[in-house]
Write a structure and sequence with these properties.
alpha/beta, Rossmann fold, about 25% strand, globular
Length: about 230
């Protein structure tokens, strides 16, 4: 989606994708990654999600990337954090309480921006992009992440012709096509959630499934991770 689309969604408070509660999949499956306390966790297209607060309370340092200035400022205000704001072109860097947000376009990230990231929590990023952009997003992520970084990924799977995104339908096979062979893809859970999402049922969906994946380095890229290099250069 074009940047202006997301800026307008936040401006018009059309943020049905925002969850006020901590995501249940994050609570249930984060430990599966065995990320050491104190590690740097990256949250792409983070919005103002409270999932970052939950991760911070678990002892992790948080780095988010978000396009909307409304989302970024709201996050710190809602959590009682007085952020220090400094320029980090092409981003604006907000910092407080062990949580740093880079306000800008995720496609402008560099290897230096994500240096030291051990894990990624992606509930809102991959599903935010239409099909042509999803491959670009995954390639971008792979080019700037440390090669040993792991990903906890949550996607939605539904008949795309029944509802326009976002969020878009990203079925399991597409996840495997996008991330392999540079990554190992393990499905942790598949769950039918249509009965719990009345707004999607009213929009005409006949099926809505959530998938949870653990995406990690292959044996080859795990070895490269010792050097801190990214998978495709950067």
């Amino acid at each position: 989606m074009e940047s202006q689309f997301w800026l307008e969604r936040w401006q018009n408070n059309e943020i049905g994708f925002h969850q006020s509660d901590i995501n249940a999949h994050l609570r249930d499956y984060w430990e599966h990654l065995r990320v050491p306390a104190g590690s740097l966790v990256f949250v792409p297209l983070c919005g103002r999600t409270r999932d970052m607060v939950w991760l911070r309370a678990g002892g992790y340092r948080i780095l988010g990337a978000e396009l909307s200035p409304i989302a970024v400022s709201s996050f710190y205000a809602e959590n009682g954090l007085g952020a220090q704001v400094t320029p980090q072109p092409p981003f604006e860097r907000w910092e407080a309480g062990g949580i740093t947000l880079l306000r800008g376009d995720v496609f402008d990230l560099t290897v230096a921006d994500l240096e030291g990231v051990t894990a990624v929590y992606d509930r809102a990023a991959l599903v935010a992009f239409p099909s042509p952009m999803r491959r670009d997003y995954v390639r971008k992520l792979a080019s700037v992440l440390p090669s040993a970084a792991q990903i906890l990924l949550v996607t939605m799977d539904y008949p795309q012709d029944q509802m326009p995104g976002p969020p878009f339908s990203v079925p399991e096979q597409e996840v495997r096509d996008l991330y392999g062979p540079e990554y190992r893809v393990d499905r942790l859970r598949t769950r039918d959630v249509l009965s719990e999402n009345d707004r999607f049922h009213k929009r005409g969906l006949t099926r809505l499934v959530e998938h949870v994946f653990h995406i990690g380095p292959t044996e080859r890229t795990r070895g490269e991770g010792d050097t801190g290099s990214s998978r495709f250069g950067g």
